[in-house]
């Protein structure tokens, strides 16, 4: 079974703080993703990475950065947290596309982040 | 228009009923599809992958209609534990890992 582990289930931070969310997967997946999920807006892609040290912006990268120094670990960084970044953050990983097409993503438990 | 559209529901059905959800997608380049279930305040979990015309796994059947650009999920003999939000996902080209688009989900409540 694929295991995607996020470092915190619940996190409370203050406006202006630098916040780190960590994600580790144990299945040697090439691709890793960070999403946020808000009521009525569904899952929105922040950043993704298809290889070590490679990253690409998703749909809503503003205010975020990422780091992928090792294949199994993908970190999301909120440079200066703001209240509109209060959300559920989900990390996911997947294999590279196969002959059939894109592979499904496997999600971590999520981090509920509150910015006060 | 959203790339992947789902009826948000809620669908409230009695135990044992058969229920079907539809999902339409706008990008004709979509190659593969997935259904996820998400319980309240939990992460999405993969329910089914659909690479050809459909897939069946026990009480769950997914059917893909490429001509009309929709995919459906049928749940037979509903259980209380099937209560969840069901997310439809389309994957565009195989060349980029980015190209997964999630629908907003359909909420199902199975009533005793």
The largest β sheet of chain A comes out as: 7 strands, mixed
Q: How big a fraction of the residues of chain B is strand? A: over 45%
Which quaternary structure do these chains form? heterodimer
Residue ranges of chain B: pLDDT <50 for 5 or more in a row? none
Largest inter-chain contact set: A-B, 28 and 26 residues
* Rg of chain B: 14 Å
What's the number of helices of chain B?
0
The N- and C-terminal alpha carbons of chain A lie at a distance of 36 Å
* Average pLDDT metric of chain A: 92
SSE pattern of chain B, N- to C-terminal:
EEEEEEEEEEE
**Gross morphology of chain A:** globular
* Percent of sequence in beta strands of chain A: over 45%
Protein architecture, described:
The complex is a heterodimer of chains A (116) and B (112). Chain A has no helices and eleven strands. Chain A is mainly beta and 116 residues long. In chain A, the strands form two sheets. In chain A, strands 2, 4, 5, 6, 9, 10 and 11 form a seven-stranded mixed β-sheet that branches. A four-stranded antiparallel β-sheet of chain A has the order 1-3-8-7, with no helix packed on it. With 112 residues, chain B is mostly beta strands. Chain B is 0% helix and 54% strand. Chain B contains no helices and eleven strands. Chain B is globular. In chain B, 38% of the residues are buried. The mean pLDDT of chain B is 90. At the A-B interface, β5 and β10 of A face β5 and β9 of B.
Give the topology.
The complex is a heterodimer of chains A (116) and B (112).
Chain A lengths: L3 E3 L3 E4 L5 E7 L5 E8 L3 E10 L2 E4 L6 E7 L2 E6 L8 E8 L11 E2 L3 E5 L1
Parallel strand pairs in A: 2-11
Antiparallel strand pairs in A: 1-3, 3-8, 4-5, 4-9, 5-6, 7-8, 9-10, 9-11
Chain B lengths: L3 E3 L4 E4 L4 E7 L6 E7 L5 E7 L3 E4 L2 E6 L4 E6 L8 E8 L8 E3 L3 E6 L1
Parallel strand pairs in B: 2-11
Antiparallel strand pairs in B: 1-3, 3-8, 4-5, 4-9, 6-7, 7-8, 9-10, 9-11
